[in-house]
Amino acid sequence: MERLTNSLMMHGRNNGKKLMVVRIVKHAMEIIHLLTDQNPIQIIVEAVINSYAIKKKDEIERVAKANR
Question: What are the residue boundaries of the Small ribosomal subunit protein uS7 domain, all occurrences included (predicted)?
Fold first, then answer.
């Protein structure tokens, strides 16, 4: 969760506003829990794993296209 909050603070206008980001993540986790009745941390971990697979696939396709 620490990496998620830090990545949300990276852009200029949000730089250094950790309390705001922590509050946003907390509310998002509450909404996930209400909608799914599951552990929100597990849902976020699964989403990150799925997004990594898509990112890796796009990277491989980009390299293959450059090698043509």
Answer: 2-50
